[in-house]
Amino acid sequence: MAETRSPSFLVGGVAGSKRGTGAVKEKDDQQAIFQKKSNMGPSPTWIWDPAAALANARHEFGEHGGVNMSIEASATFTVMEPETMRRMFAGELGPDRDFFIYSRHFNPTVLNLGRLMAALEGTEAAYCTASGMSAISSVLLQLCSSGGHIVASTVLYGGTHALLTHFFPRACNITTTFVDIGDVSAVKNAIVEGKTTVLYLESMSNPTLRVANIPELSKVAHEKGVKVVVDNTFAPMVLSPARLGADVVVHSISKFISGGADVIAGAVCGPAWLVNSMMDLHQGALMLLGPTMNAKVAFELSERIPHLGLRMKEHCARALAFATRLKKLGLKVIYPGLEDHPQHHLLKSMANKDYGFGGLLCLDMETEERANRLMNILQNHSQFGFMAVSLGYYETLMSCSGSSTSSEMSSEEQALAGISPGLVRMSVGYVGTLEQKWSQLEKALSVLQ
């Protein structure tokens, strides 16, 4: 059975025993899978660092004492006594005491990854899903009902934009007002009291790399009783939205957190009451929609999160170096680490110390034709990177956002979001040496000119 290396102030109690029901002590809130802890705030003498929080999280050992946890690949779980199953379905016994029913509900290996994600984001709880989009759609469906209203940023990942613009109104009768989240008064005016339930935004926008003023936006939303949901896919370790005032943080784990471009996964990180409600047998969006993560995927990801901080520092350092040099060459570079970026000082004020300014940069080549020429040279002649969507891979990945990851948006919507037809989004990798990769990038630019 799993052991506890050190107490965690986040989700998850010490594993119990399934040998019988008599020894199990009842808790006041029998329905709660995740128990709220009171000491979520940072110590006055301790600067928040997600790597330190991860190191303090519960560590699972293997069934036979292995330093790595065992993979619980079972779809269903046995009980020792018939009465135990009745109590599990009644909500009296649950994963907090090591009682499991079925892996669509909870799986021990996936639950452990959830603990790590909660530690990473500084939230009470987290639940890991089969994709980033399933995490986004599930949390919004849990927080919004038919006839509900969402206020969202004009600049969002194309799939999220399509979900809010087309799918939700048609299938769920949930409407969205898109606003420039840089204009706090516009956000405030877009909130309809008694109807708006969610303010949705990205910590760093995809693909324009605008940085959201999370503390100010959270304050405005909370004054009107609105929950703040932040997609932090672009900035794990760099930003901690829940520590800045957001209620819920969502991730596409497929990106930087995975780092290998080999799995699709997502996560919802937030308060215990929300994750509990999303797993409710009768009303839970995660429980009933079933975007279940495979336990083998959860194991793989649990092994990668411990070195996420090291990887993010290198992604960010390379991105800053390239952005600085490209700017000196006279190119139109968008990167929050540059002092002339509109939200550079805002990001510095919110960012966790020593993790940099993000691993993505954008080059505005003005036209799609010039953008495609550059990417073709970079991949097929100088071997700088690959033309591919996604991000967070150890190789540099490049795409022309307007015709790829933002193609769900109309040309008018792209213009409103500030997405140029020739905007090249680069997820900067860390293979090779910095000077080696810079030489390849320089060579491509000289050929282009």
TrEMBL record:
Disordered: region residues: 1-25
UniProt record, GO biological process: transsulfuration
Cofactor: pyridoxal 5'-phosphate
Ion transport recorded as keyword: no
Highest taxon in the source lineage: Eukaryota
Keywords from the named record: Pyridoxal phosphate
Residues with PTM N6-(pyridoxal phosphate)lysine: K255
Molecular-function GO terms, alphabetical: carbon-sulfur lyase activity; pyridoxal phosphate binding
Cellular compartments per GO CC: cytoplasm
InterPro entries in the cross-refs: Cys/Met-Metab_PyrdxlP-dep_enz (IPR000277), PyrdxlP-dep_Trfase (IPR015424), PyrdxlP-dep_Trfase_major (IPR015421), PyrdxlP-dep_Trfase_small (IPR015422)
Family per record: Belongs to the trans-sulfuration enzymes family.
The name this protein goes by in its record: Methionine gamma-lyase
